[in-house]
Write a structure and sequence with these properties.
With 172 residues, the chain is an alpha+beta fold. Helix content is 12%, strand content 27%. Among the domains are: 35 residues, no CATH class; 84 residues, Sandwich (Immunoglobulin-like), CATH 2.60.40. It is built from 2 helices and 7 strands.
């Protein structure tokens, strides 16, 4: 036999090009989505390596303090949660059929050498307003503050109580 090499037909194909840096690949998009999920559920300030980072707005009050409105036989009650606030810093006003509750929570003291890594306490001004029904006797509105909860009592007027009428509900 001869030692001549035999020829094989070889098809040339081009190898797939690596993805460009400016176009995100599937894994890059997945990584970004996972990072976004972690950001939604676990703020960056709680993750290891980010202890000193506090996102913007972390020390501000939410838009309004939590409130609850209820109706009793002779009055309406508005309760507002204001934990850690001095009662003297809370103002309750009635103007043109609107009850306005506003105040401010101030920081008690600052420590010059303290290093805070997490600060979840909120400081600053807040306000909340409510429309007062015409059936309220505005001359008898009262407000009390106990254990961080403001309670505003809006008594119904005698005329409003007299005008109440129960309507029977009939089955169809």
């Amino acid at each position: 036999m001869s030692d001549t090499p035999t020829r094989l037909d070889v098809q040339r194909t081009t190898a797939p090009r690596p993805q460009q840096a400016d176009s995100p690949g599937t894994f890059d998009m997945l990584r970004r989505e996972v990072d976004r999920l972690f950001d939604d559920f676990l703020p960056a300030r709680w993750r290891p390596g980010f202890a000193a980072f506090v996102p913007p707005g972390a020390g501000e009050w939410p838009l309004a303090p939590a409130a609850e409105l209820s109706e009793q036989d002779h009055s309406f009650l508005i309760t507002v949660e204001l934990p850690g606030i001095d009662p003297a810093a809370v103002e309750v006003k009635l103007s043109d059929g609107t009850l306005l509750i506003k105040g401010e929570k101030t920081q008690e003291k600052t420590e010059e050498n303290a290093e805070r890594y997490i600060c979840e306490r909120r400081y600053g001004a807040f306000q909340r307003s409510f429309s007062v029904p015409q059936s309220v006797d505005t001359a008898k509105i009262e407000a009390s503050f106990s254990n961080g909860v403001l309670t505003v009592t809006l008594p119904k007027s005698a005329a409003a109580k007299a005008n109440e009428k129960r309507i029977a509900v009939k089955a169809a």
